[in-house]
Amino acid sequence: MVMWEVRVVNAELHKRYVDDANVRAASFLLSYHSLSHFTTTLDLHFLQVPEALQVLDIFLDAHVSNLQDSGQLRRTLYIITGRGMHSMGGRARLRPAVTHHLKEKGLR
Q1: SS3 of 26, please?
Q2: 82 burial level (CB within 10 Å; 0-12, 13-18, 19+)
Q3: Pick from 5, 26, 43, 54: most CB atoms within 10 A?
Q4: Signal peptide position in this chain (predicted)?
Q5: 102: closest CA among 72, 57, 67, 69?
Q6: pTM score above 0.85
Q7: 12-21, long-range: CB within 8 Å, 24+ apart, which pairs?
Q8: Residue span of the structural domain in which 17 resides
């Protein structure tokens, strides 16, 4: 019984490490590729939903800040989510999550 509990704790700790590494990797890729060239396109496919939403927030914050600095009122941004072909069961998870996230922020 004790060995099983230790394995559960180790699995949970490992999952946290993996999740943290995924977030850091996604943020690094965003800062290196997107923000350094200040592109209006964000490619999120191949990311998991939690990491993609964090990267999306960083991307949106950078563009909102840039809009405020430039005095512009709007900008068209392109967000690539993929079709869900790599998702379990072939069902898209990223696109619905991104759409919902944008609606929550009052964006379309």
Answers
A1: helix
A2: middle
A3: 26
A4: none
A5: 57
A6: no
A7: 19/50
A8: 2-104
